[in-house]
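User: two proteins, same treatment. go.

Assistant:
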Amino acid sequence: MSKTLTVEIWSDLICPMCWMGKRRFERALAAFPHGDRVHVVHRAFRLQPGALPPQPVEQMMARRFGSAADVSTMLKGVEQAAAGEGLTYHLSGTLVGDTLDAHRLMQLAAAKGVQAQAIERFYRAYFTEGLSLFDRETQLRLAKEAGLDRAAAAAVLDGDAYLAEVEADQRRAQALGANGVPFFLIGGRLAVTGAQPSETFLAALTKAWDATPAPVPQAEAAEICGPDGCPL
């Protein structure tokens, strides 16, 4: 039995730092000597739960950060940072809102074994292609392009499938003290907040790996526990 390490990543599909953080983590994982033994679990985090209807990002940011000129400068800065990670962002005019349905589709994708493809497709659609993640037809098209059956995706959107899972992810993140994303929990104990440099993720992976005990071989476990059970 080989030692493994689980990394949970909370993110929102409209969070610009989340895609960048994902790329930086992936580079760290590629450099990690035990990368083939790391199990990555993507978890949902809604930055604007209950926000209806979707609104242009400039409108939302102007209320929080100031003038249109300030917002434009901030968006361009984020686009430049993304370019440094090999990502193309076109943020002007993108819509922000409650990503509940998109996250429910990510849960379906996980169940069907295509979550990695779905996350990348939705990120690229939103940040690079300027598509809305709040439009049903767009959601269904992207889901199909990511490898999901359109009818199965439509059934999810038409009901409340995976609602409980998405809400549970959000509650757990908040219980862990995560008030924003991306948020990484490595080995169940080491938290990394934000789109940190790849070197930071690599150091965290190494630290968590070294702190993770090796699994007890079956024969040894039997010897420790004995035929009458395991001592307290």
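Protein 2:
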Amino acid sequence: MAGLLDEDFLRKIDKLNLVSKRVRVGSLKGERRSVKRGTSVEFADYRNYTPGDDLRQVDWNIYARLEKVFLKLFEEEEELTVHVLLDCSRSMNWSGVDDDYIEGGPSFGNPRYNKLLYGKKTAAAIAYMGLSAMDRITVSGLSGEGGPNDLRLPMTRGKNQTVRMIRFVENLKPGQGENLNTALKNYATQSRFPGLLFLISDLFVPGGCFDGLRALQGAGYEVSLLHVLSPDEVNPTLRGDLKLVDSETGESQEVTIDNAALELYRREFVNWQREIMEFCQRRAINYVQVDTTIPFDDLVLHYMRRRGLLV
């Protein structure tokens, strides 16, 4: 398997399943066991008969032995739709800044710490696990306001779609992302089959994302937020007289960064992250914050499993 995910990693996640706390039964049967009791061939349990129950589900062998009427219950296979939304705004195309200076300017970090690349790997891994479980999968790259600049892989299913999915994710390009709220609201109203939804973003957007997340939940989506940051965004160390350029708008500002400025930044960062975490807790959104120095394998195989996103 070329590109984002190598064969060794795919083998590690091949038997993992995405976890949905809700029961959704669609027109096609997937390979996911639901907690809802249905009529498939997989026996689950017994319960006492109550008037009005389907007599075809009565276990007459038990009735003959015990003279008590019990109904056989069966596990029903559930079809899950998985939506993967990847923020492809310009701020995501960032690999961090090294502490040292080269010819009077900062040197940019290791490309393997690039947030967009990290997000692409995460998106592809989530989609692959869904394809392996015969879930319906769709992947979207958000770079504008939910309009024609945003690309979407049409809903698909089955492991035979893996190469197509990975190529789609690989080809996503960074663009201007002005309003994530608008993009999420548009997705909530335009997309069919609400289901499990993963939003992968650095959340460096004007207006935030809370209104968009509310719209997704109001439309029936079960939302998980993967907050991807570079190490210098979490804990910056640059000092001196600098010219900062906004990667989204191109606006620039000359600043002097000293210890006091760094301390102020760290306080504001902690408050910002706490606000996001508290919002997600109130709304029952599974929130995972990760910086790109954490090995990608650890994010999927350990962090996401510990947070109950995978089993």
